[in-house]
Amino acid sequence: MKRRPLLALGLAAPAIAPSRAQAQAWPDRPIRLVVPFPGGSSTDILGRIAAQQVSRGLNGATVIVDNRAGAGGTIGSQYVAQAAPDGLTLLLGTIGTHSVNPHLMPNLPYDPMRDFTPIIAHSKTKILLVVRPQLGVRSMAEFVALARTRPLSVASSGTGTTGHLAQALLGEATGITTTHVPYRDGARAVTDLLSGQIDSMFYHTQFVRSHIESGTMLGLGITGNTRSDVLPGVPTFAEGGLPVINIEAWWAIYAPPRLPAALTQRLNAIFNAALVEPETRTAFARNGVEGMGGSPEDLANFQRAELDRWREVIRRANITADS
């Protein structure tokens, strides 16, 4: 009777050992960080920062940034969902790939909760509404008033992006109807706004900051509870009476499903430490980005809440993949 528990313990020990051994030997080859968007995009910029963070945390280990763009981030995300759970393939997921696309693409080839191992909520950035100065408005109130008198165009970097969702929230909050103009390339939208082809645009801080500072664009509002440290002259949407426009773009690190717990915790610890490093703080400040952090469980809970939130916004606004 006394021998059975001892035998059971003896049989259980080998099952635990491989996971620990794998974590100790890892990485035995270069790590691939998949960025599911093209070079030069905000996700690519954050991906290169994240790759450097992992490399520093592993004493200079090689981390390759692999841009696998297409289908709104679906191609790269699917690649990681189907990769081996050995800690050598990671994904920089986004609000789009893991909280919005599931509601826009009925045939999405992955489940955002089931088919990934959450590692850490990495970073986030505020969203601004910018206009060309020639439009003649200087505040959100003036923008809304003008939109009630004539059609205004509001560009974004694509269907289902944070800019598109912000445009939907603007319509819900004010009752105005604006024309959404989705671009496949946010840089082209910036060019068209500067040339007067479009009236306004919702976009990330890092891509409009220099234009606001030079006066070639006006920032009417920015998301978040407080003003941006890098653009303190732009009031929050809440200050303009529109607290419902509170969307932020975010990025998170994922691994393929069934990553061993030891590797999950090690990666999480590496990123949490990296997010407070001086190098990271400098890079984030330069790009108007804020660190997030926390546990894998924190990321899973945050993502689940985001999935629920954007499902309802997309439904109410009747946004589809072709919007």
Fold and architecture overview:
The protein is an alpha/beta fold and about 325 residues long. It is about 45% helix and about 20% strand. It has 11 helices and 10 strands. Strands 1, 2, 3, 4, 5, 6, 7, 8, 9 and 10 form a 10-stranded mixed β-sheet that branches. Helix 1 crosses helix 9, helix 4 (about 95-105) packs across helix 11 (about 295-315) and helix 6 crosses helix 11. The protein is globular and about 65 Å long. The model is unreliable at about 1-20 (pLDDT under 50).
Secondary-structure element order, N to C: HEHEHEHEHEHEHEHEEHHEH
Q: How many beta strands in the DSSP annotation?
A: 10
Average pLDDT over all residues:
92
* Rg (C-alpha, Å): 22 Å
Beta-strand residue fraction: 15-25%
The poorly predicted ranges are 1-18
Span between termini: 68 Å
Kindly name the structural category: alpha/beta
Give helix % range: 40-55%
Q: What general form does the structure show?
A: globular
Number of helices: 11
Oligomeric state of the chains in view:
single chain
Largest sheet: 10 strands, mixed
Give a topology summary:
Blueprint: H1 3-25, E1 31-35, H2 42-57, E2 63-67, H3 74-81, E3 89-94, H4 95-104, E4 117-131, H5 140-147, E5 153-156, H6 162-174, E6 179-182, H7 186-194, E7 200-204, H8 205-214, E8 218-222, E9 248-255, H9 261-274, H10 278-287, E10 289-291, H11 296-317
Parallel strand pairs: 1-2, 1-3, 5-6, 5-7
Antiparallel strand pairs: 3-9, 4-7, 4-8, 4-9, 4-10
